[in-house]
Amino acid sequence: MKKLLFASLMLFFSAVSYAQIEGKWKTIDDETGKPKSIVEIFKKSDGKYYGKIVQLLAKPENENCVKCTDDRKNKPLIGLEIIRGLKKDGNEFSGGHITDPKNGKTYKCTVKTDGSDKLDVRGYIGFSLIGRSQTWHKVK
């Protein structure tokens, strides 16, 4: 009986953590392969997920988002909300947008995790085949 209870609890906690994207994630620069920033993903009262830069690990060209064209224009990178409006959809999070502060462009976004310490982030235009993916790593 204890084994069954333990197995049930482990299954429950693994299912709960499976789709967990909240927390701090280390981003990796596509060009250099080196850590670039720490992004904190959190859930707002609207039930959607957002992500903001909380730490820069590499010195950027500019401390502000000078190429952003929306309400983030010229805002400091630290605290900049780069992910907006993700909704949980099964085992992935979608329906939101991600902004690349380097070029100021905003893309549709999907995020997936397999419950490990890695987050697959995909930004794309139009449909998901035309885009780019990154793997972010959980900050412990």
From TrEMBL:
It holds the Pfam family DUF2147. The keyword Nucleotide-binding does not apply. Residues 23-138 form the DUF2147 domain. The keyword Transport does not apply. Residues 1-19 form the signal peptide. Keywords: Signal. PANTHER family: BLL5882 PROTEIN, BLR1215 PROTEIN. This is DUF2147 domain-containing protein. It comes from Cloacibacterium rupense. The lineage of its organism: Bacteria, Pseudomonadati, Bacteroidota, Flavobacteriia, Flavobacteriales.
